[in-house]
Amino acid sequence: MTVKNIEKAKAERDITMRRYSTYRKTPTFVSTVRRGFTLLELLIVIAIIAIIAGMLLPALNRVREKANGIDCVSNQKQIQQALSSYVDDNQEYFPAYSNISAAGDGFTSTWIDTIYKGNYLKGGAVFFCKSHRTRKATDFDAKYISDPLSVYPSATFVNVSYGYNSFYLGCSLMLPDATQSNWITPAKRPQIRKPSETISLVDTVNLSKPHQGSCFCVPCIDESFLNGGFAGQPDPRHSGGCNIAWSDGHVSQVSNIDRKNPFLSDPFRKGNTDGDANNYWDRK
Q: Does residue 38 sit in helix, strand or coil?
């Protein structure tokens, strides 16, 4: 073989090796390239996530609200049982709504204080509803939950989620024969002719301070109830409904309550008409 042929064969071999090398490396190079998401793809993913969240959140909120409603019913049943036990032990009298005097010269404790002093309840957590979201916590909350009596008598703590039928059961203020001397007298069990139709406790919000609750629920709107800022009205906090503990001990939810003025809705609307068959506050 001549030198010329040797050089030619060597050149052809080099060309072949370069081609083979390129053929082997190209797939490896292509397979290691990582391409990021485009803006359009990211927007599509975000839109899909938003749609799924929009579908799931209402369902999750309904489940949470249902759980809160069940917890609220349990709270009211416990409080109502405590009230019933108090009545059993006190000549069938319901607890007075407060220790106010006949002259109306203020009070330093409430019916809740009376219940705890008698050891009919332990701990204050039962007086707070998880659906009562307009209520703002106070410095007294932690103390009240652990030991309700620790906040009395200096604080007259009324910022709770449930109001007592104070003016038909807790006193005689709304009765036609109420006088200056007897209006503070609470009801007796035999006077409640239809216990299953007489309100005892209800979800309550403060009349003049919507960010607070109240342990007193009034049966109607009256300017005199606004004095002092303690009185409350029914609060349809459970998706437009209120939980009510009735005087016979059962608890039920009443739906479709007018949010702006619950006293326009049954069973609250006849609270200022003594003796009316549709007055579910009255002793009947």
A: coil
CA–CA separation, 165 vs 185, rounded Å? Answer: 13
Half-sphere exposure of residue 274, counting CA atoms within 13 Å on the CB side? 9
The residues, ordered by sequence, that sit 6+ positions from 271 with a Cβ below 8 Å of its Cβ are 174, 218, 219, 220, 263, 279, 280, 281, 282
Q: What are the structure tokens assigned to 166, written together?
A: 């104070």
Amino acid present at 87 = V
Higher confidence at residue 210 or residue 170? 170
pLDDT in tens, 131-155: 998 888 777 787 788 888 777 654 5
Q: Distance (Å, rounded) from C-alpha 267 to C-alpha 257?
A: 9
Which are the contacts of 122, defined by CB distance < 8 A and separation ≥ 6? none
Cα 98 from Cα 62, distance rounded (Å) = 37
Alpha helices in the chain (DSSP H): 3-31, 39-89, 111-117, 141-146
| CA separation, residue 54 to residues 58, 61, 64 (Å) | 7, 11, 16
How far apart CA 29 and CA 85 sit, in angstroms, is 83
Structural contact between residues 242 and 235, judged by C-beta atoms closer than 8 angstroms: yes
Whether the CA torsion 97, 98, 100, 106 is positive or negative: it is negative
Alpha carbon 201 to chain centroid, angstroms: 15
